[in-house]
Amino acid sequence: MIFGGINILELCAQIPVLMFSLSFHEFFHSFTAYKMGDYSQKSEGRLTLNPLVHIDWIGFFMVLVARFGWAKPVMIDPNNFAKGEGGEADNRRMKRAMALTAAAGPAANLLLALIAAIILAPLSVHYLDVRFFMVFTDIMSAEFQIPMYARVIMMLLGNMLQLNLVLAVFNMLPIPPLDGSKIFSAFLSPRLYFKFIRGSSVTSIIFVVLILTGAADRVLSPIISFLYLGFFYLSLLIL
Hints:
Blueprint lengths: L1 E2 L2 E2 H28 L4 H4 L7 H4 L2 H10 L24 H38 L19 H24 L7 H7 L4 H9 L1 H14 L1 H24 L1
Antiparallel strand pairs: 1-2
Helix pairs in contact: 1-5, 1-6, 5-6, 5-7, 5-10, 6-10
C-alpha cells in the first residue's frame, strides 16, 4: 500500500526492526563497557534492551525519513577502563577496552543479521525459489502465492537482515563519532592519536557532505549487498 510515495507496509515493518536493532546495538556497547570496568552504565540504566532507554526520537525519525540518524550515545569514562587489577593506570588496557566497547555495537548488528538470515534463508528457498533479494521489496506482490503470515515474517526478517548490515558497515567507518573511529584510534600512537582527534571536525564535515550527496551510499551499497548474499549462503551452510 503506497501513500504519498511511502510504502506503508514496508514502513510498518521497518519501525519495530529499527527500534530493536538500535537498542540491541547500544545495549552491547553498554554491556561491554560494564564488563570492562565502567559501572556507570548500570547506574544510568543502559543495561537493558528497552528501546525507550536507548532511542533518540529525533535521530530515529531521521533514519526513517533521511536514512541517516542516531540513537542515544553510550557515555563512557575511559578512566574506568585504565585501572588494572592493582588499581594502577594502564593506558594499553584503556585503549583495548575502548576498542572492544566500540566494536561491540557493530558486532551485535552482525549477530542479528546472521540470526535473521538463518531463519529467512529456508523460507526464501521454499517460497521464492531462492530469489532472496526480493524478500523485503516485492514480497507483498500478488505475483507470489505466499500465505500472508509468511509474507509478514519474511518482510520483517528481510528488513532486519539488511538494516543490521547497514548499521554494522556504516558504524565501522573510521570517522568520528562513529564506532570505527574509536577502534582505529586504539592502534595509533599518542602523537598520531592527537592529530587524528584534531582533524576529526574536518573529516566529520566531509562525511556529512558524502551522505547528503549520496556518495557514501554508492560506496557502501556494494559492500552491504555482498554481505547480504554472503550471509544467505552462510546460513544455508549452517542449516
